[in-house]
């Protein structure tokens, strides 16, 4: 028996979180905890800081990493190498205050043949689940959008609303 934990951090123990959208690098961002309740968010591609961040949104986002778990371990999955040969949807990298790095890469999961959209057309990808590889342990697993979706927001999530 083993724990299904991917991320388990208290917000103040996180130094940074980097979200890299492979196919949309302009949307990739990094949240940096500068300490003493000071935060910054920057675009990875340009290395430019977002000028007016919502500190509450940043704190809320970092709180999401307190207990994130995968659904099912699939280390002996026969199609694992084929999945890992595809381009990941995104990756999330957390660096804690001790400089320990924890990265997960997420991959599309094909939808079951009976899954259709509102128009009755077959879905290409599962709308509820993804494959993932936890890089440090090399574990391959299934994760849920319900759990991980909040970890991969648009960078607009962090901008102060007028």
Percent of residues in helical segments?
A: 10-25%
For the termini, the CA-CA separation is 49 Å
How many strands, what sense, and barrel or not for the largest sheet? 8 strands, antiparallel
In the predicted model, the low-confidence regions spanning at least 5 consecutive residues are none
- Bin the strand percentage: 35-45%
Computed over alpha carbons, the radius of gyration is: 17 Å
Largest beta sheet: what is the strand line-up?
4-3-2-7-8-9-10-6
Description:
By secondary structure, the chain is mostly beta strands. It has three helices and ten strands, in the order E-E-E-E-H-E-E-H-E-E-E-E-H. The chain has helices spanning 55-63, 80-84, 145-148, and strands at 5-7, 14-21, 29-35, 38-43, 68-69, 72-73, 90-96, 101-110, 125-134, 139-144. The protein has an eight-stranded antiparallel β-sheet with strand order 4-3-2-7-8-9-10-6. Strand 9 and strand 10 form a beta hairpin. It is globular.
């Amino acid at each position: 028996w083993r724990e299904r934990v991917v991320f388990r951090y208290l917000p103040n123990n996180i130094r940074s979180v980097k979200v890299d959208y492979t196919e949309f690098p302009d949307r990739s961002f990094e949240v940096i905890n500068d300490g003493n309740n000071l935060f910054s968010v920057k675009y990875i591609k340009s290395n430019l800081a977002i000028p007016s961040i919502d500190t509450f949104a940043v704190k809320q986002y970092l709180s999401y990493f307190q207990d994130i778990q995968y659904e099912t371990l699939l280390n002996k999955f026969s199609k694992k190498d084929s999945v890992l040969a595809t381009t990941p949807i995104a990756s999330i990298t957390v660096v804690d205050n001790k400089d320990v790095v924890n990265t997960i890469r997420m991959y599309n999961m094909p939808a079951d043949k009976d899954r259709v959209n509102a128009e009755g057309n077959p879905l290409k990808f599962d709308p509820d689940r993804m494959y993932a590889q936890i890089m440090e342990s090399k574990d391959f697993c299934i994760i849920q959008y319900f759990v991980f979706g909040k970890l991969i927001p648009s960078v607009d999530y962090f901008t102060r609303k007028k």
